[in-house]
């Protein structure tokens, strides 16, 4: 189905170019471009449905040529980059979205996640801190923050945040996993400390 749509678009584009020197009705080319962009968008949706996010991104980008489709296509372009694990382009796309809607917490959360995946963990932690302060009732923000704290071995802060998670969201399925990771880390530190401690050695001379 997707291949058929692509062939159709190529034939329409050829027809449009072959007629470019002929007299056309005013606004006809704009309507044709709008229709072509709608087909691009439809193809992108098809690729998204089969989880080919790289190809979906290509066609969402083409669909953005139509101003009426640009808001939706821009958001789905950014999401497609993220799902394709193309972190560089995903970051750029979400930054552009944030310029348009700078109070959108979902866009900020996406950027925090992307920064974490890129290895910019300090920036990601700061972004999650701000998100949690602004949105204390959103469970996923707190869980993602704790997960990143554990990953970066900031266990003292992680322990504090786990307690907050227990208080605010006692039904969270992540509590058990976080608590286990914290306990495992503490045990590994204790084991390491005990193995590095100097052992008592008997005196070389005994008292008579």
List the helices and strands and how they pair.
Elements: H1 2-18, H2 28-49, H3 53-63, H4 70-83, H5 87-100, H6 105-118, H7 121-134, H8 139-151, H9 155-168, H10 174-196
Residue share in helices?
A: over 70%
Distance between the termini: 97 Å
Strand tally:
0
Strand residues, percent: under 5%
Which short descriptors sum up this protein?
208 residues, mainly alpha, 10 helices
What does this entry show, briefly?
By secondary structure, the chain is an all-alpha fold. It contains ten helices and no strands.
Please describe what this structure looks like.
- There is one protein chain.
- The protein is mainly α.
- It has helices spanning 2-18, 28-49, 53-63, 70-83, 87-100, 105-118, 121-134, 139-151, 155-168, 174-196.
- Helix 5 (87-100) runs antiparallel to helix 6.
- The longest helix has 23 residues, at 174-196.
- It is elongated and about 75 Å long.
- The termini are far apart.
- The model is unreliable at 7-23 and 200-208 (pLDDT under 50).
